[in-house]
């Protein structure tokens, strides 16, 4: 069985506790339950997916090789309460699990943003996972690992990035099919930036009286596509 670091899209890693990191930065959380709260983001390099709306293609390759201890030291420099590990696809690097565990031990409120193609097995139970189920218009729906649904915990969140009406209907169906309303803390519906107007998605949700949380990407409203925000 191959390790995560052997997976397609994962960067080559050297060293027992090394990670390839694209950037570490301090900003406001733009999505999910902690939206608006100051947060340190650790963006890992590499991703096996190629979603049509991806806004972090610069994280597909390159990056800097850092030991987990070096990453934690940089995070500490911001004196945060909240830390989000994101990508790319962070779980494509096996040492991501060590990083998550170490950040939790350090006392941070840690969240993980993952694209749903990699197994959640081994993720520290103290971590809040934000699982992005890929919709048909993403171009990567076939990569969803639905075995992850059974691994979600009550505090976790499931996100759907919706590009059009067909995506909306598909997402509604998946919420019901997998019983997500009773399984996770939040179900997030997000309009794909530049593809679907937020107002349109809001009207669909209200018309159907859906018990989901609609969210806009706060960081893009504030800073556009600026990297490191």
Automatic annotation (TrEMBL):
Gene3D superfamilies (UniProt xref): Aldolase class I (3.20.20.70)
Annotated residues for binding of S-adenosyl-L-methionine: 53-55, 88
Binding-site residues, Mg(2+): 56
Described function: Catalyzes the complex heterocyclic radical-mediated conversion of 6-carboxy-5,6,7,8-tetrahydropterin (CPH4) to 7-carboxy-7-deazaguanine (CDG), a step common to the biosynthetic pathways of all 7-deazapurine-containing compounds.
Every Radical SAM core domain range: 34-225
Amino-acid biosynthesis recorded as keyword: no
E.C. numbers: 4.3.99.3
Enzyme class: lyase
Annotated signal peptide: none
Subunit structure: Homodimer.
Catalytic activity: 6-carboxy-5,6,7,8-tetrahydropterin + H(+) = 7-carboxy-7-carbaguanine + NH4(+)
Sites where the protein binds substrate: 28-30, 43, 86
Named cofactor requirement(s): [4Fe-4S] cluster; S-adenosyl-L-methionine; Mg(2+)
Protein name: 7-carboxy-7-deazaguanine synthase
Pathway listed: Purine metabolism; 7-cyano-7-deazaguanine biosynthesis
Residues binding [4Fe-4S] cluster: 47, 51, 54
Organism: Candidatus Marimicrobium litorale
Keywords: 4Fe-4S, Iron, Iron-sulfur, Lyase, Magnesium, Metal-binding, Queuosine biosynthesis, S-adenosyl-L-methionine
Similarity comment: Belongs to the radical SAM superfamily. 7-carboxy-7-deazaguanine synthase family.
Keyword S-adenosyl-L-methionine annotated: yes
Cofactor, how bound (note): Binds 1 [4Fe-4S] cluster. The cluster is coordinated with 3 cysteines and an exchangeable S-adenosyl-L-methionine. Binds 1 S-adenosyl-L-methionine per subunit.
């Amino acid at each position: 069985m191959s390790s995560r670091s052997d997976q397609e899209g994962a960067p080559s890693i050297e060293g027992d506790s090394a990670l390839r990191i694209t950037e570490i930065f301090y900003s406001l959380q733009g999505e999910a339950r902690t939206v608006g709260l100051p947060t340190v983001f650790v963006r890992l390099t590499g991703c096996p997916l190629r979603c049509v709306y991806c806004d972090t293609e610069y994280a597909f390759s390159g990056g800097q090789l850092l030991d987990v201890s070096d990453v934690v030291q940089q995070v500490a420099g911001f004196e945060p309460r909240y830390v989000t590990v994101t990508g790319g696809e962070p779980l494509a690097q096996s040492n991501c699990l060590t990083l998550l565990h170490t950040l939790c031990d350090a006392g941070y409120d840690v969240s993980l943003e993952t694209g749903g193609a990699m197994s959640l097995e081994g993720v520290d139970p103290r971590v809040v996972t934000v699982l992005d189920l890929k919709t048909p218009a993403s171009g990567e729906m076939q990569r969803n690992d639905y075995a992850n649904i059974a691994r979600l915990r009550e505090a976790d969140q499931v996100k759907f990035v919706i590009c059009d009406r067909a995506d909306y209907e598909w997402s509604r169906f998946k919420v019901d099919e997998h019983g997500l309303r009773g399984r996770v803390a939040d179900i997030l519906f997000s309009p794909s930036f530049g593809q679907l107007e937020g107002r349109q998605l809001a009207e669909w949700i209200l018309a159907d009286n859906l018990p989901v949380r609609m969210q806009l990407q706060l960081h893009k409203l504030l800073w556009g596509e600026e990297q490191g925000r």
